[in-house]
Amino acid sequence: MGFYHLMFLYVILHNCMEFTFAQMPGFVSIDCGGEKDHTDKLGIEWTPDDQIIYGNTSKISTENETRQQYQTLRYFPADDRKYCYSLNVQTRTRYLIRATFLYGNFDNNNVYPKFDISMGPTHWATIVISDANTIESQELIFLASDPKVSVCLSNSTTGLPFISTLELRQFNGSVYLTPYEEQFFLSVSARINFGAENEDPVRYPDDPFDRIWESDSVKKANYLVDVAIGTKKISTKLPIANGKDELPPQKVMQTAVVGQNGALTYRLNLDGFPGYGWAYTYFAEIEDLNPNKTRKFKLVLPGAPELSKSIVNIQENAQGKYRVYEPGYYNITLPFVLSFKFAKTSDSTEGPLLNAIEISKYLEITDGSFDGAVAASLVSVYKSLDWAQEGGDPCLPVPWSWMECNSDPQPKIISVKLSSKNITGGIPSDLTKFSSLEELWLDGNAFTGSIPDFSGCPNLRIIHLENNQLSGHVPSSLANLPNLSRLYLQNNLLSGHVPSGLLNKNIIFNYTGNENLHKESSGGRHNIYIILGLAVGAAALLIGFIISFLLLCKRKKDHKQEPEASFHVTSKSNATSDGAQCFTLSEIIFATKNFEKKIGSGGFGTVFYGKLSDGKEIAVKLLGNSNIQQGKKEFANEVSLLSRIHHRNLVKFYGFCQEGEKDILVYEFMHNGTLKEHLYGPLAKERKMKWLERLEIADDAAKGIEYLHTGCIPSIIHRDLKSSNILLDKNMKAKVSDFGLSKLAVDGISHVSSIVRGTVGYLDPEYYISNHLTEKSDIYSFGVILLELISGKEAISNESFGMNCRNIVQWARLHIENGDIQGIIDPSLGDEYDIQSMWKLAEKALMCVQPHANSRPSMSEVIKEIQDAIMIERGVVGGSSEEISRNSFHSSLNMGSLDTGVDPYVSFHASTKPSAR
Ligand SMILES: *[C@@H]1O[C@H](CO)[C@@H](O)[C@H](O)[C@H]1NC(C)=O
Ligand SMILES: *[C@@H]1O[C@H](CO)[C@@H](O)[C@H](O)[C@H]1NC(C)=O
Ligand SMILES: *[C@@H]1O[C@H](CO)[C@@H](O)[C@H](O)[C@H]1NC(C)=O
Ligand SMILES: *[C@@H]1O[C@H](CO)[C@@H](O)[C@H](O)[C@H]1NC(C)=O
Ligand SMILES: *[C@@H]1O[C@H](CO)[C@@H](O)[C@H](O)[C@H]1NC(C)=O
Ligand SMILES: *[C@@H]1O[C@H](CO)[C@@H](O)[C@H](O)[C@H]1NC(C)=O
Ligand SMILES: *[C@@H]1O[C@H](CO)[C@@H](O)[C@H](O)[C@H]1NC(C)=O
């Protein structure tokens, strides 16, 4: 017991004897945003993080969550800084660190936060919140090499970074020892208690290290599925002998599943994989078998036959019943989608048994920055000052706010900016040890003493020491800094002579306001400001000016020549500064040859092909017969809003035309038409899109939608996403079209009176019922598009989905939930796809079409999944397959599973031998 360390401030914990439960030593449980200490039902003592000077706290309340530590959180600004918690640890000791995040909509924002967390300089995870009421959790197991570890939040891409709890648990044994522990953390992916009594996880006090053993009966996305028929739970009350403290706790080992039909199969998603991992299984014979019965089984892995050679005979391996046997692999390649199977051997009377598994991914430790130790020593002197409390590595993952670092693999500090920080005392000598320092700003403080020797920083270019109380002589060594170009020493208490070396240097040098500092030669003359090389400098400056002036003009000229800007603009033009171009009707008629070629029609009107006089191709949308009462002004306002939305994956809006009875919108022309045509229109008959192509289209479209949701303020809900609104350009890059139009429609611009907008088959059922519109309605529609991409079928069809089913969502859900993904895959894909990427996308699509909006993921989460799927697909189909396959298998193995792309089984690294610890 004693103290732990937060942001460099020590907090004394209560003496543990006060509590009923004897707290394990090495437990630190921080209740972020909390107000006072408390002990939870489990007996874990929580301490608030009230010593942290950064961020704000917030109270939240979420359904069914009563634990005090989840009623509060701390959040930080979404800036480019990092915000760190520092914890004291014992070196050469293994720990588990867990960070959890319960959003609870604390900021009343519809945009779920997404940000990074790091462990010291190592990127730990990207936290993507996809549900306000679900706790996100990340765990690492690590060997402490420093007496301090820091967990930092940074790089917020949406929303505000926040944290709910931070927990540190000390191990005392070597179960998690790996040969790589100095270079790799173990990032925990799965820790499952099979045959669990109920859905509650097993943790402290049952597990003295407070690991969380998830129940196998929990039903959640990406969790255990494909459970083999005949899988039965068994349990015992008898104690399980377990030689090492850190093996799974008794309560976990007392339950198991048995494959009564001879096999146990499961599938689960391993986030962060494929990669190298650490995977162990835990067995204990807890059934009272007759002596003439046997239980022998093996792992069946078609991709790695050698691994299935080792036969598990629990009683024999563990030397008895009710004893733990824990075979595993400390370095094994695992895929995203892990399907594992234990099958009984032919001579065994009983089916396989499994009590628990634990799988972690190796996370490579990033070296700290080069100057880390010196920087730590520097700030330790100023513990109580704000700027010294930022914590973590000085440069990684982002530098302290008053610092800049270079981009070396091990970054070096190149700039220190501590102007006006009210710092007293001498200039710390640590500053002179930053060997790559280029800029030093210490002006406007209360530094006393003399100027140190900066010979150790040969790259120094700029030194600001003005407005301090520095005394003594100006060191002549300053003149030896080869790159020095600016030196500011004014308004100090310096004395003696200005070194002539400095006066002779071609630099900007100000040393006024130092009463007793004299220029050597001319005696009593004070306050001399010298700029040498004036002529050269001024000339350079002048040339610079001229060049930049020319550039400016050129840009202007260029701009004028831009074709879309070259059209005649009506005198009472509504064109906005940001580019909504007002076309005249005659221009449009000319471009479309009087609306000759119709290329599409939709809810908002008819689309015609056009070509402007300069050859630019356009799509002209003639909005539906407008009985507009509300007038032209709203139309123009909305249109000018539209013109501010720019994104690679949104169809470009060029301008509009409003003359007479006509309301016209002008867009870029998309050569390859709509996604719909390619999936099941006439184009599909000519050429079927490949799976990778479909994934890339999904990725493009998703990014466009994400931009509408999170990149625009206020965010834009599309309301009418469908495969006919995803357009494809010359290079088959997808862009979303028709965004912003529903708003036009609903807000009274068009004649459309119904409030709920959307297209049957894509329409969010919850929105339909409640009329309450959020981004999640778009997510639903996008889920339907994903299902179309997988199946090549229309969203609504009377024929495609069999009896009593018209709707792609119902049809696909039925198949996917039964584990029958093959049943929905577009037959025209043949077997040219990787089943893992298919599963990934299918499962995400199902999440998107959840009936309740708040169980649907955010767009950014969907994108992550699509990109993972692309990675898998490229790895297998593309040229870069080498990487994954070579790593996955020993060369002597054939590449069964990944080659064919249809085998869901895990690929084990064949050169690793099972090892019993
Ligand atoms: C809260 O618990 C109730 C009853 O168990 C359940 O019906 C409901 O779905 C839960 N809500 C959430 C958000 O988990
Ligand atoms: C925290 O609260 C203060 C005062 O209410 C406010 O000025 C500041 O901007 C808030 N910080 C963040 C990160 O929201
Ligand atoms: C910040 O996050 C984005 C998206 O998650 C990522 O692309 C980017 O590389 C991250 N930046 C840093 C400095 O980690
Ligand atoms: C095993 O022993 C039980 C009695 O202990 C007996 O009923 C059963 O037939 C035996 N089974 C086999 C396969 O020998
Ligand atoms: C695991 O094995 C692979 C292949 O032998 C090797 O490249 C890797 O460094 C090993 N360790 C880790 C932590 O990945
Ligand atoms: C500067 O520091 C002094 C003493 O260290 C303190 O009294 C004063 O309030 C500080 N001023 C500012 C602006 O922080
Ligand atoms: C030198 O510093 C003094 C005091 O800050 C200032 O008044 C003066 O303008 C500076 N000289 C030049 C040439 O910048």
TrEMBL record:
Signal peptide from the UniProt entry: 1-22
**Catalytic reaction annotation:** L-seryl-[protein] + ATP = O-phospho-L-seryl-[protein] + ADP + H(+); L-threonyl-[protein] + ATP = O-phospho-L-threonyl-[protein] + ADP + H(+)
Q: Give the record's GO CC terms.
A: membrane
Cell division is among the record's keywords: no
Cite the entry's keywords alphabetically. ATP-binding, Kinase, Leucine-rich repeat, Membrane, Nucleotide-binding, Phosphoprotein, Receptor, Repeat, Serine/threonine-protein kinase, Signal, Transferase, Transmembrane, Transmembrane helix
Q: Which Pfam families match?
A: LRR_8 (PF13855), Malectin_like (PF12819), PK_Tyr_Ser-Thr (PF07714)
Could you say which residues bind ATP here? K621
This protein's source sits in the domain of life called: Eukaryota
Residues passing through the membrane, by range: 528-552
Main EC class of this protein? transferase
Molecular functions per Gene Ontology: ATP binding; protein serine/threonine kinase activity
What are its E.C. numbers?
A: 2.7.11.1
Which cell locations does it reside in?
Membrane
Membrane topology field: Single-pass membrane protein
Which residue ranges does the record assign to the Protein kinase domain? 593-870
Q: What is this protein called?
A: non-specific serine/threonine protein kinase
Q: Which organism is it from?
A: Artemisia annua (Sweet wormwood)
